[in-house]
Each structure stands twice: as structure tokens, then as C-alpha cells.
# Entry
Amino acid sequence: MQWTLVIPLKSLVRAKSRLTATAGDGQRPGLALAFAQDTVAAALACAAVRDVAVVTDDARAGRELSALGARIVADEPGTGLNAALTHAATAVRAARGKSPLAALNADLPALRPSELARVLDAAAEFPRAFLADAAAIGTTLLTAAPGRELRPAFGPDSRSRHLASGATELLLEAVDSVRRDVDTGDDLRTALALGVGSHTAAVTARLLITGQ
# Structure
């Protein structure tokens, strides 16, 4: 099964506000973009992924991620993450028919294509499934089988919300790169220790951030 991934990305000037102490407001937008670039590049390199749609209204992000091969979908109706994902899922299904869909976080700079493939292959067994983040509180990936609605419930405590919605939690080992989203400086250092993509590596090198 080959999946279409939907990756939401808010305006870069508003993204990753909890990283301000680590990167500063001047560098934070570039860091958020680097996370998204490495996430998209790894997703497109995954054998289980057919294509990637990025949901954003940020012009700079749209240009850079389109150059990597992502399709850009406008962030409509502009009322939050779950509404944006639902809109994008509808747009993708209009073009792809009843294709399998997966919503993936944009802040997975250590993402490994092989680990993503393992998660998607496991998800193919269920109508809807999700992978919890490293803290086991949030969600980094939510899937919907062909013909099934995505029904995203991202936000605070999204792991519990997706469980309550009837989605199956994927309990997999050795997929740390798919769980490691980055919201804080400590998260970033952990991701750097795992090994991040080239875009994040370049930005963090300029900021003198290490994985130690």
C-alpha cells in the first residue's frame, strides 16, 4: 500500500514558539522551516509514500517545500490544525480517490524513511491508526485506510483523544525517529543525538546547538 501524507505547517513566524529560548525569534522561523524540509524529504524518500501534501499558507515554506516535491494545499478554513487537516484530506481524496491517508507532524527532523515505512505498513492493518509521540501524550502520525475519514483530533493530549475516537494505537519499537517531534530545546537536543536531516543540521550548526 502506498500512502499520501498530509503535513500541516503553520506560519513560520508563529511556529515553534517554545523554541524561542533556544533559537531566538530571529532564527526560529528558519529552524521551523528546516524541520519541515527534513520531514518532507524523508517522507518522500520512504518506499511506502506515494506523495506528500503540505497544508500551509506560508509563502516561503510553500516555495521551499514545493521545490522538494511536495504539493501545497491552502490552509483552509483557517480555524485550526484539525480543520486544516480535514480540508487537506478532502482535497487529496478529490484528486486521488479513496487513497490511504496519513497526517504527519512537520517537526520530525530526525525522521528515517525506513522507520516511517514500518509504521505505515503496520497502520495498513487498521481502518484508522495512530502513533503516539515520545512523551506518550501527543500524536505524531494518524492514518486512515482507503475510504475511511481521517477524523483528526490533534492538540493537547491527542493520544487520549485519538484513542477515544476509535483509532488503534500502534505499539511499535525501534521507530524513535517517527515519535521524536521537536517542541523544546531538550527535544531538539534529543533529535540531534538521533541524527537529523541536512537542513536542520545546517541551521543548528549556525546556532551552536549540539546533541550532547
User: Anything to note?
Assistant: The mean pLDDT is 95. The chain has one domain: 3-207. The longest strand covers residues 49-55. The two ends are 38 Å apart (CA to CA).
